[in-house]
Design brief:
The chain has eleven helices and twelve strands. The chain has a six-stranded mixed sheet with strand order 8-10-7-11-9-12, sandwiched between helices. A four-stranded mixed sheet has the order 3-6-4-5, covered by helices on one side. Helix 6 (174-183) crosses helix 7 (190-197), helix 6 runs parallel beside helix 10 and helix 6 (174-183) packs across helix 11. With 318 residues, the protein is an alpha+beta fold.
Length: 318
């Protein structure tokens, strides 16, 4: 891309030229029968059911362009939506994306955003099949994901039973630690800073959990305590988490927490956006997962080492 091309804004190019650039040269998996370019996409639903979720990222609330590149934002947008499908025991297959931005936004930035989305989607064999582009006062990225259960029953929030083991796959507290570092302009701990910009979703592990008989599952988007509470409420059970079992996560963020003046347990238990998967199992925990607690009789509540937690409880949207 030449310097002149990089200087062209969305207003200079116009909606349809931008869209043509975003979809040019993209390839789709066999399940996409009609991709971008028509009035709507056509995708197959081999299972006869479709898992659907949607999520939105707003500039200044969910990402900052002085911290994240457009490529990072694109990857994050796809990852957090794919994690919701993983948490149902399904696989994400295709995405529809709506993008709002100021008219003065460089067209190259929109292309970088799209490249990030495609890079993340291709990591698990999915593609972007359509969307919309509109003028807005700030960047807004809205993503709808479609997923396939491949014959499995969906793993819901409300199936946990007393005696089940609570287990996690993926990391906890890293994104929150990274956010604290960015917020305090601490340039050390680059891996944690990166973890806040782009989550590492344990792709494929939702299906592993479903095949292993998971009774309930969620992804950690709002924080371990907050998301475990969704399971507790839906299942009318208590969830008792063990700090001993979370020692590795504590150790991974402790130094960064000290540098940023944060409580490392607050990051591990209350920090979100890692998009690890948490599930309950009546039997053995599958390979790659680690037990972090137990399901107890109701009432619905979340405990830490058998007692209520008084620290940060997780993300609130409002």
């Amino acid at each position: 891309m030449t310097d002149d091309e990089r200087a062209e804004t969305l207003a200079d190019l116009g909606e349809f030229v931008v869209i043509d650039r975003l979809v040019q040269g993209r390839t789709h998996p066999p399940g996409v029968l009609v991709g971008p370019g028509d009035d709507a996409a056509v995708v197959t639903a081999p299972d006869g059911r479709v898992v659907v979720s949607t999520d939105m990222l707003v500039e200044g609330r969910h990402f900052r362009l002085d911290w994240s590149t457009p490529h990072d934002v694109g990857r994050k947008a796809i990852a957090q939506n794919a994690a919701d499908v993983e948490a149902m025991g399904a696989a994400a297959t295709s995405f529809v994306v709506a993008f709002g931005a100021p008219a003065a936004t460089p067209g190259a930035a929109a292309e970088e955003l799209s490249d990030g989305m495609w890079a993340e989607a291709r990591a698990f064999g999915a593609s972007i099949v359509g969307g919309d582009l509109v003028a807005a006062s700030q960047w807004v990225v809205s993503v709808t994901v479609l997923g396939d259960l491949a014959g499995r029953a969906p793993v819901l929030l409300g199936g946990a039973r007393p005696g089940d083991t609570v287990a996690v796959v993926g990391s906890l507290g890293r994104s929150a630690a990274g956010y604290a570092l960015w917020r305090n302009d601490i340039r050390s701990f680059p891996e944690l800073r990166r973890a806040h910009l782009v989550p590492s979703v344990p792709y494929g592990q939702g299906r592993v959990a479903a095949d292993a008989g998971a009774t309930a599952m969620t992804d950690v988007s709002d924080g371990l305590l907050a998301d475990a509470r969704h399971v507790a409420d839906a299942s009318a059970v208590g969830v008792d988490l063990s700090r001993d079992a979370l020692a590795a996560d504590h150790g991974a963020v402790a130094a960064a927490a000290a540098a940023a003046g944060e409580d490392p347990w607050g990051l591990v238990l209350g920090g979100g956006e890692d998009h690890a998967l948490v599930a309950t199992f009546p039997g053995a925990v599958p390979a790659g997962w680690r037990a972090i607690g137990v399901v107890r009789d109701g009432p619905a509540r979340v405990l830490v080492d058998g007692a209520p937690w008084t620290g940060p409880g997780g993300w609130r949207s409002f």
